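Reply to dn_fold:

You asked what the input looked like. This is it:
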Amino acid sequence: MEKSLKYYLSLICLVSFFSCKNEISNLDTAQKTELAEKTYQDAIQFRQGSTAFQNGIADAVKINPDYQAAVYELSVAHLKRGMPHKWLPQYNKAVKLDSVTRIPWRGYLYLWFYRDYKKAIADFDASDTLTPNFIDAPQGHSVDYWRGIAYLGLKDYKNSLFYFDKYIAKEIKDSGEDWVELTAFLYRGIAYYEIEDYDNALLNFDKQLQYGRNLSADAKYYKALIFKKQNQIDKAKESIEGAIKDYNLGYYNNRAYVETLRQIYPEDIEALQNSIK
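and this is what came back:
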């Protein structure tokens, strides 16, 4: 009886599937797009990556394989689960449908999820070619800002400083210095620190503190490093103690899902504190 019931239910599902498939095939392009969008919107009400979410997105793609939003979204769960062999082929399908949007976004994903700085830079450079009169801003920040981080990851401090300078100058011109992303000052300061230009490094760390309500474990940590090198022990102690307080309050550079570039940890701060005598 149980086997018969399972068989009956499977048969119903199979018949429903082919019936729906036949109905969809009779729709024109606009109707397929409308139905795919509705299916997509229903799916994203569920938790990202959940079964209901993934199945709903997959249904939207089946209805209209050219519905870019769903094609892209289908790749996201694979990315966040660390499955590049599934993420990239699916994501590249979205690139073919909307290269202008998806190429700079792919650069952002290469940068943070896979630390592939060269591929990230290649995509950011490609976005300049695709939109020569417009600066793309995946995840809300200019590709110049992201390039600055990517070159810092490659330890190419000259190019890192070039793109941070470019990004910061444009933000100041368009909106004012207080609109600059705070971590741009932090990362530009780190680039200066690495080439031992301590005056400009301190200037940038102080800029982050100025616009960040004097709260940044990272800026104070690097200031302590510089003061230690300059044998300004009292200033070094004061800075590292401030870094500890800010870190404990949660004011340190970090990212969701992945470790951020040059992320500091309590062990780093403690080791520096112990080295300052």
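The chain has a mean pLDDT of 90.
Hope that clears it up.
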